[in-house]
Amino acid sequence: MVVCCWLLVVCWWLFVGGCLLVVGGCLPPLLLSLPLRSPAPLLLRSPAPPPHPTPYTLHPKIPQPYSLYEKISMNDSPITFLGFDPGKDKCGIAVMKSDRTLLFHQVVPSGEAIATIFSLAQQFPAEKLIIGDQTTAKKWIKELEKSGWSIEQIAMIDERYSSLEARDRYWEMYPPKGLQRLIPQGMRQPPRPVDDIVAIILIERYLAKINAPGNT
């Protein structure tokens, strides 16, 4: 009985092995007869382009600085005046247009005053030079005539109390800061000479005079 069982097992394994051999022998020709297809190419996605920058509004272009001469050449209708407050050691000089546009003001040594006025007259062609009617005015007018100014181009104006007015005007142009604001304006002293501001006031007084009723 045992021998028969072993024989059945052996026969079974022989049958299975034979079947595997048959299948194994037929499978390679079958695979070779099938049409070969190249593998589908692997599609690689290119990286997405970076997002377009968010549109933004540019700030208005800041205009480039221009010279004072270019500025006044934009409008030729206002008349240019040159103010002159002469002194023994220092002089005040200012250039202003008839529309009260201030173009220049500076305190210069007396020895440089005539040359400075000549240079400014080249840069800012002035119709009139306004000078205070102090005692030394005639002496300075002669010096101006020597430098090329005609007597018709020079006008004298009352300069009384112009220095006091210039001190108050200084604090309007340059408001006090810090503890200086606590000091009453009448007690404040400007930290620098105000002869140039006197020259501004002389021009303003001349303009007020020629624009007064009755003057043509």
Plain-language structure description:
Mean pLDDT is 75; it is low at 38-75. It contains 6 helices and 5 strands, in the order ααβββαβαβαα. The protein is 40% helix and 14% strand. A 5-stranded mixed β-sheet has the order 3-2-1-4-5, with helices on both faces. It is an alpha/beta fold and 216 residues long. The protein starts with a helix and ends in a 6-residue tail after the last helix.
Give start-end ranges of low-pLDDT stretches: 38-75
User: First CA to last CA: what distance?
Assistant: 155 Å
The amount of beta strand, in percent, is: 5-15%
Following the backbone from N to C, one meets helices and strands in this order, namely: HHEEEHEHEHH
Q: What order do the strands of the largest sheet run in, or round the barrel if closed?
A: 3-2-1-4-5
Structural class, by secondary structure, is alpha/beta
Tell me the Rg in angstroms: 50 Å
How would you sum up this structure in a few lines?
40% of the residues lie in helices and 14% in strands.
Task: Please render the helix and strand layout as text.
Elements: H1 2-33, H2 68-73, E1 80-85, E2 90-97, E3 102-109, H3 113-123, E4 128-132, H4 137-146, E5 154-157, H5 162-173, H6 195-210
Parallel strand pairs: 1-4, 4-5
Antiparallel strand pairs: 1-2, 2-3
